[in-house]
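The data are quoted verbatim for completeness:
=====
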Amino acid sequence: MLGGGQLGKMFLQEAANYNAEVHILDPSADAPCAALTPRFRTGDFKDHATVLAFGEQMDILTIEFEDVNADALAELEKQGKKVFPQPSVLKIIQDKGLQKEFYTKNDIPTAPYFMISSAAEALSYKDQLPLFQKLRTSGYDGYGVKALKTEADLQEAFNAPSVLEQKADMEMELSVIVARNEAGETAVFPSVAMAFNPLANMVEYLYAPAPVSEEVEQRAQALALKVIDALGMVGILAVEMFLLKNGELWVNEVAPRPHNSGHHTIEANYTSQFEMHFRSISGLPLGNTALIQPAVMVNILGEPGYSGAAIYEGLEEALALGNVYIHLYGKSVTKPYRKMGHVTVLDMDIRKAIDKAVKIKDILKVKA
């Protein structure tokens, strides 16, 4: 696996149930995976030679982070290694411009967009405001995204190849996670609704199941299946969508790996997204995606104003609320809005789960 962060850590925990030998490559010697396996290697997953040397010793290669060297993975695929997601798919997803063109080509609904190569070009789209500017490459978790609401905002646009996206008249944001194995078997998790932190522009709360009609649920799942089938991808794919006020669904972005919007599945679903990722890339039958009971997930972010060695406050008080499952990622250093962990709350009454999650957000703090 290229990448040794929290997604890799949770993948290792599931893969251990299958007695799988998982090797990890990550540039940081104290990445979350490092403490979990003796098969951790320090190295740059963006460096062609490093990835090639690492991959030549493996049977299957996968990722927990998109920004890796796809050319090296393509070379390994030519050597006969199994690489999932396939490098051809990864190259599309690594570039938000290519993603958009893929959606257009395959009749997948998405927000209207314009391609630009510089900040100067953004100025010519002032009549289309409000817009969102997304860097074509290397953006993640809200980084590389700018809201352009006024002409003054255009003066602060990224001076790099970007996608300008028209603002959606949105009811809510959804995510649907879908898996596909080499045999073409697919499995779809129920959709979830996401609420974002307005300052960090990343998911703060997640609600499962999403509060949508059965008709919208069926269309959302069908759209996620259409995306993964059009890609011909093997592995797990998170399909983030906008549900518009007029009932339409637009695909926003996709992630070809386990995703923050699927963390609740560890406790709330019969098969977690991490086990499903393992099954799909290993050629195994896919698991049961059904929800066991409603869940709310809250991301635990580094507190504003604190940077340094992480100190956790409120763990005992949060656990005392009951049906609360805490996952700390093992990051030694905290900084404002850094993802340091998540908490999943289960309750047959989703409203009670929401109330607990809001309390946990106030109780559980990461400081330095």
